[in-house]
Amino acid sequence: MAIISLIFTTGAGFLLIISSLLKIISLHESAKSVHKITFLPEKIAILLGYIFPFFELVLAVFLVLRVNDFFVNITAIIIISIFIIINSNAILKHSYAECFCFGKLMKSRMGMGGLIQSIFLFLSILPNIIYNNAHVLSLFSFNGFNFEYIALITVTTLWTLTLILIRISVDKLNALRT
Amino acid sequence: MILINICKILLGIVFLKSSFIKTKKPYQFYKALEDYNFFKKSNLLLVLSTFLIVLEQLLCIFLILPSNPIIFLSLGISLQLFYIFLLFLNLGRDFKNNCECFSLNAPAVVTGKNISINIFLLISIFIIYGCLIRY
After folding, report:
1. What digits encode the pLDDT tens for the residues A7-38?
2. What domain range is A19 assigned to?
3. Is the CB of A92 less than 8 angstroms away from the CB of B91?
4. A119-130: buried (b, 16+ CB within 10 Å) or exposed (e) per residue?
5. Would you call A109 helix, strand, or coil by DSSP?
6. ∠ CA A141-A144-A145, rounded to 5°
7. Å from A130 to nearest chain B CA?
């Protein structure tokens, strides 16, 4: 259980790191897009848009390092459930606005892709809350650079790539349909 | 630990209020569920609506009184997932037979806000369970 939890949590953490770094690179655009995708007033939304990528980066680093595991996981679950709610709302209102979730590098829209990705992220982190894991492992808990460690890093990276690919492919399918 | 218990009881009170209204108006709840077009057979729906009310009352009892956390977790997940699924199926629809008295789980007009509240309640159950098994 400790290894499975490590793979899924670190995979989700890597995805959040990539997402937040790409947002920071195109901070101005991503801050502006927050107003379009949330129900918040313009000034608060833009301020949140500037702060959120940095907060996401800190959270993602804590997820990868497994620092203060339970509280970090609770914060991550709350943020991911907000993603789920915002994406569901976009699907309901048929407003598939550009969200700059991965900055300018990977163009992404609100909608089904975001919803599926957020649900997978949610399911990756949920076991950490439900199970009281006595041995919280991180990628830095291993001493030797052996086969197990390489396999672990490969699987974790694959999970991150899968989460990104799901988003891209569903977004492209939706764009083709419309 | 005290804070967790207070949150648990508060959550229990939210469900208690909702189940109390359903207990007072079981027929209206049955009619509201009938409009949601989930079950076609009326006999089955009658049993289901009664069962849902009883489950919600049990959930309140397990949340308010000290009990095994796994019971309220499983009850809460099953109930909330069912309601979220039901609301998603009927999103944006307007119901005429609805008495507008079950704003939490069976509202007259299903909006994103109703689903968000139900998702929030589900997350709260997860977090309270997680806190209880650790502290």
Report:
1. 999 999 999 999 999 989 888 888 888 877 77
2. 2-177
3. yes
4. bbbbebbbebbe
5. strand
6. 105
7. 5
pLDDT in tens, chain B (135 residues): 788 889 899 999 999 998 888 888 888 888 888 888 777 777 888 888 889 899 999 999 998 998 888 888 898 999 999 988 888 888 777 777 777 777 777 777 777 788 888 999 999 999 999 888 887
Is the CB of A92 less than 8 angstroms away from the CB of B127? no
Domain count, chain A: 1
Mutate to test the interface with A, among B80, B116, B129 (most CBs of A within 10 A): B116
The ipTM is: 0.79
Alpha helices in A94-146 (DSSP H): 112-130
* Contact (CB<8Å) A126/B115: no
- Residues A110 and A90: their CA atoms lie apart, in Å, by 6
Angle subtended at Cα A122 by Cα B64 and Cα B134, rounded to the nearest 5 degrees: 45
C-alpha to C-alpha distance for A63 and A70, rounded to whole angstroms: 10
